[in-house]
User: Which sequence fits this backbone?
């Protein structure tokens, strides 16, 4: 099936998202002239393939449950926020809060991602080829953050059960985050993620595993608290 | 929420287009600040002349004020009158020109003073303000603009940005400071006067005070990091420099695009998307706690 083409220059965001939602499963669509527009491909539940040809704005692909979105450019804040399933692939850099609260699916960033990547992650996989900014993985509850480059300060602050793998350096760990030994199942998980993302620069046996020390899980009035 | 835009033109060929480049950027940021808007424009100017950006809501006859100032200072004065706003160019030194306005018409508010700088700011939609003051036709080498969604003080022209705390310096701010009263009390003890109760004005006057003590713009902004607490993305321009700083949390957005011809800054990328050559620009997000400066 030939891809459908929509132009942001000719459609409002509401018209565009409504037209995308009306496409049948299996359709392919190209979105042209995004010019940093916010809220492209938000809230879609159909199994379609979307190519955004240029830079996109905030919340790209957010709340998605089904579509596979590729952005040939960079994206603004909160790309894939609250993603439920499907894939968002960003060929450039991503801004802050990438994958915030995402429950499922995968968000792949081929460049760098900024501050608070995978904040409050709830089950999705956030895979970044390059660096991530400060406070990444903050309060992550489930899911995985893979960083192919270096992580900024305060990585994994107040982590719950999200696991973070970092191939490069870590500027500093946040409260209650700790480095743990890498076991065989970790290596397998990272190998699968690297294969999914198509990253060839990450050696799954040479990443650092960061997870919660679980010391902040419960409030203990009888001991000194460190929050 | 507020929106910030700025343009620092490296290439003189673009100077005639400053207004037509910055106007759509400002308009685009209406979504972040529909209350008020303002822009400081910097253009080359002959020596010995100072430009006063004035605002009054009492129906001031700007031409008559211009004639009075010319008589008072024995200097040539040219007047651009635009309703409540006027730009008076006076062939005199700053103190003489400012002193004359204050003496002759105390109800007139001095929005900005500069050899190179003019400021237009007002309450209302950015689009309306752009039209009212003919921003698109204006030329120059640099501009900083702001669209305001007020969170901490009144929606008036005085409370809108840019704030111009000294000659040829303009500051725009997205965010909120949490200790402006403390810093303000200290500045007031040093004799600094304030026009409003706005937190961004405190930051602007703090920056100007550091520069008065000999700091350059970058050093003054590093002092802001030490002394002022809160959330901020700041864009500050002088006749020589263009600078950006974000606080340590960096939760107010900022994006910079740089080419051989210009440095452009905005709260959101789509305000930059129409600039010439943006496809090949180096686009990046300024890191927290890092002072970025460009000098002409």
Assistant:
């Amino acid at each position: 099936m030939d891809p459908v083409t929509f132009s942001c220059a000719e459609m409002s965001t509401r018209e565009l998202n409504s037209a995308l939602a009306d496409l049948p499963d299996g359709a392919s669509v190209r979105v042209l002239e995004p010019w940093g527009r916010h809220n492209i491909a938000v809230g879609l539940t159909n199994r379609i393939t979307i190519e955004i040809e240029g830079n996109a704005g905030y919340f790209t692909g957010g709340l998605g449950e089904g579509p596979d979105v590729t952005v040939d450019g960079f994206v603004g804040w909160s790309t894939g926020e609250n993603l439920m399933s499907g894939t968002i692939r960003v060929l450039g850099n991503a801004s802050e809060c990438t994958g915030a609260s995402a429950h499922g699916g995968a968000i792949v960033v081929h460049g760098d991602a900024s501050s608070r990547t995978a904040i409050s992650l709830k089950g999705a996989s956030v895979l970044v080829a390059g660096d991530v900014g400060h406070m990444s993985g903050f309060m992550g509850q489930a899911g995985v953050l893979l960083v192919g480059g270096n992580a900024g300060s305060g990585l994994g602050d107040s982590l719950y059960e999200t696991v973070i793998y970092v191939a490069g350096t870590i500027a500093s760990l946040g409260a209650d985050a700790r480095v743990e030994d890498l076991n065989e199942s970790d290596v397998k998980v990272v190998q699968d993620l690297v294969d999914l993302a198509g990253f060839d620069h990450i050696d799954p046996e040479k990443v650092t595993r960061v997870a919660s020390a679980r010391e902040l899980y419960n409030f203990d009035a009888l001991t000194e608290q460190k929050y | 929420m507020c929106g910030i835009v700025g343009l620092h033109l490296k290439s003189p060929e673009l100077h005639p287009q400053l207004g037509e480049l910055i106007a759509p950027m400002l308009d685009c940021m209406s979504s972040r600040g529909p209350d008020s808007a303002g822009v400081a424009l910097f253009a080359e100017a002959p020596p010995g002349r100072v430009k006063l950006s004035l605002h009054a809501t009492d129906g001031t006859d700007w031409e008559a004020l211009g004639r009075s100032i010319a008589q008072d200072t024995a200097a040539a004065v040219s007047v651009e009158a635009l309703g409540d706003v006027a730009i008076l160019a006076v062939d005199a030194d700053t103190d003489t020109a400012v002193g004359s306005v204050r003496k002759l018409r105390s109800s007139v508010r001095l929005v900005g003073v500069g050899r190179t700088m003019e400021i237009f700011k007002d309450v209302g939609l950015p689009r309306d303000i752009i039209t009212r003051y003919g921003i698109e036709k204006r030329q120059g080498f640099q501009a900083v603009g702001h669209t305001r969604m007020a969170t901490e003080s009144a929606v008036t022209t005085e409370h809108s940005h840019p704030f111009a705390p000294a000659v040829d310096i303009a500051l725009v701010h997205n965010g909120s400071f949490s200790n402006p009263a403390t810093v303000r009390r200290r500045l007031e003890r040093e004799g600094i006067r304030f026009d409003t109760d706005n937190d961004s004005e405190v930051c602007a006057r703090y920056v100007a005070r550091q520069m008065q003590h000999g700091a350059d713009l970058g050093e003054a902004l590093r002092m802001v990091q030490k002394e002022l607490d809160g959330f901020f993305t700041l864009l500050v321009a002088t006749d020589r420099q263009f600078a950006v700083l974000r606080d340590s949390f960096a939760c107010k957005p900022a994006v910079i695009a740089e080419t051989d011809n210009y440095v452009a800054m905005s709260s959101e990328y789509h305000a930059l998307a129409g600039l010439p050559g943006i496809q090949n620009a180096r686009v990046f997000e300024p890191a927290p706690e890092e002072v970025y400066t460009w000098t002409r």
User: Anything to note?
Assistant: Residues 34 and 125 of chain B are 5 Å apart (CA to CA). The radius of gyration of chain B is 18 Å.
